[in-house]
Amino acid sequence: MTSPQSFALVFGAQFAAFGAMMPFLPAILAEGGLSAGEVGAVLAAGSLVRLVAAPLSGRLADAVPDMRRLLAVAALLAAAASLGFGLAAGFALLLAVQLLHSTAAAPIVPLSDALAVGAVRRGGFDYARVRSVGSITFMIGALAAGLAAEWVGPRVAAWMLAAGLLLTAWAALRLPAPVAREGGAAPSASIWAPLAEPGFRWVLPLAALIQGSHAVYYGFSTLHWQAAGLSTGFIGLLWALGVLAEIVLFLWGRPLVERLGLRGLALLAAGAGVLRWTVTAFTVEPAVLVGVNLLHGLTFGAMHLAAMRALVGLPAGLSGRAQTLLASAVSASTGGLMWGSGWLYGAVGGLAFLAMAGLCVLAFALALRPVPAAPGPAAPRSGSDHPSAA
Fold this sequence. Notes:
Elements: H1 3-21, H2 25-31, H3 36-61, H4 67-87, H5 91-105, H6 108-121, H7 127-152, H8 156-172, H9 198-212, H10 215-227, H11 232-252, H12 254-282, H13 286-293, H14 296-311, H15 319-348, H16 353-367, H17 380-383
């Protein structure tokens, strides 16, 4: 199996799993007897534990000789923990499952990206096109889980999550064998070493704000739309359409990405976020929701492309730590916002999305700053890209 194919399999397996689970985790928690505030607390706890787990795994990844094995172990442990979502009920048990699963799953996406960026840096393939496979399978997973949930309930997503993560573990071991460690930071360097890079410091708060602005969407859009009478199948379709827009950007957006550059991509993502969350706050009209959910290609996709564009220019020895620190910054903002969003959504319902629009206004202002250092000479072709997460 060639390098692009093997990475496509890794991305495809993990994002099929996350696509099945992400739209329906709030519904699983609600079915388990949790209030809106408790749902927010459990979701926030998962984000906050990833804040700690991801940087530690990144430090370990930059020290071990074969990052693939660490990725496989993480996927196996996360698959085992995910079974708890299909079995547990009550706040204490579901919180425990969330903490275990989030700890194990925290390294999966950033380590996959770190391995892929390393291969791209060596001239291996077009990252955006390979990563688009993950976006495609996320969409398929969301659609499949939405249809299955109508027949057997939302907990079916937990079993789909476990299956996808098992496949991820197997696929990780089929990635190309690592070459001798590339130059850059020594394995003993600080976990915080990427913060010494000006470009990394520039992009970090933008990723935290713009990706964090998805907190109400990730946590409460499904519950909000179910309460408005929309079917789980249609809700799965809304999530899938958002990822479809992401796929279009990854596959055919290279001219736009190259034209806009790092700052332009961040400004585009922030502006789209202001529009998306403002409209979502005021309507549950299906046709309008279809339109605004297509903006996910910009709110998530363009910001991800901007972040990867910045990270590919860092020293190769910082890859694991840079990816996981970025993931931790996003987890910290999303976790804190998710925690508050539970209470905010309980108080004002869909108007909670307006707070997310405010975050994007702040991000837009920050993105107007000059970029202190140009991204690397070869931003993973097509602009280096990609959440997902989500």
